[in-house]
Amino acid sequence: MSMRHDRRTFLRGAAGLLGAGLGVSLLAACASPAPSPAAPAGTSAPPQTAPAQAAAPSGVTPVKVTYAFASINPLHYVATIAGEKPELTRPFGIQFDLLQTTNSPNAVNALVGGSVDVAAVTPDSAWPAQDKVPDLKQVMAIADGTPYVLIGQPDVKKAGDLKGATLGASAVRGGADTLAIRIMLLENGLKDTDYTIVQAGSVSDRTAAMKARTVQALAQLEPQATLLRDAGFPEIDNANNYPPLKGVHSIVLMAKQGWYTGSTAEVAKSFIRAWDGVTKWLYDPANKAEVLAITKKTMNVEDKAAEAGYTLHVAGKSVSMTLRPNEKYLQQFADNQRRAGTENVPADPMKYVDTSLVDAALKG
User: Fold this and answer.
1) Which of 45, 79, 89, 214 lies most in the core, judged by the most C-beta atoms within 10 Å?
2) Domain count, the chain
3) Which residues of 313-346 are buried (b: 16+ CB within 10 A; e: fewer)?
């Protein structure tokens, strides 16, 4: 999946250099803001009573919806598949335009700066931005649970051995893997002050950091976790061992209200319908071989690792099947943040959520 625009290359570089709090102003000033796409002339809204079968008029050019996300990995299976198989979203009049940002805080920055239409983010990376920009809303569930394993250097035998260690993560704060690390180590008696988390980049970058021994451990997803285990790095814990890490939305979709309530409201609803259609395609067992092929191509892995990714994220249902945000899942996410020692965790995380887009798009 190529990024053909120089603007995208610049944004990725800028996002990697900027912290979550400082990136907004530069992205807003330097990025060429992508105007919210307008529906092409003659496009009519797909029937709301049958969203899975809704189709755009024949011959109409699909509208690009720019989607910011950390990196290509199974938490973003839907967007990855949509990028590889545009024919799945074309019937809805939508084309996914993907922008990798290396982590969730940078995806938030890209949305606030106006360079993308929607962003896949962790709820905790969204809250501070939403406090400053009330127009930002969490509108859809993307990933459920915390499908991470804790992997250490060969001399690390158990999580308790990581006292004083340096761990690699996508972000020091605001990454799904970061919270997984903090909770798993807390369960093993280690507080935040007992270890150091450093920003080590995307999923593949973190794997490289482990192999270079620049970090002592990390929380990793499949299929990269299989690559590390096969290279001799032991799995020392699994987030699925802890019930509080299961019933959560680890990734949600964030958008500006003006995008999904203004002149592009029908585009926004069509995007949700397209997402729902790709989700159904992903979960259809008849498509497993093609999903595995896409995994191997986009995530640069072989058969065994691709199969492990499919097992954990599709068979294990980490990709949200129900797109409407779940209040209990978001409350549990907030409770986990509070328990890990995060400051300024909202008492009611639903105040940052607007379910009206999903409700309108998938009505009936």
Assistant:
1) 89
2) 2
3) bbeeebbbeebebbeebbbbbbebbeebebeebb
Average confidence score pLDDT of the chain: 86
Q: Which of 245, 265, 286 lies at the terminal end of a domain, its last residue?
A: 245
Residue 210 pLDDT > 80, yes or no?
yes
Co-location of 289 and 323 in the same domain: yes
Alpha helices by DSSP H, the chain: 6-17, 23-30, 77-84, 104-112, 123-132, 176-187, 203-211, 224-230, 257-261, 265-283, 288-299, 303-310, 327-340, 356-361
Mark whether 274 and 343 lie in a shared domain.
yes
Strands 63-69 and 94-100: parallel
CA–CA separation, 147 and 221 (whole Å): 6
Spatial separation of the C-alpha atoms in residues 331 and 334, rounded to whole Å: 5
Q: What is the pLDDT of residues 84-143, one digit of tens each?
A: 999 999 999 999 999 999 999 999 999 999 999 999 999 999 999 999 999 999 999 999
Q: pTM above 0.70? A: yes
Do the domain assignments include residue 26?
yes
Domain that holds residue 344: 6-144+248-361
The rounded percent of the chain whose pLDDT value lies above 90 is: 75
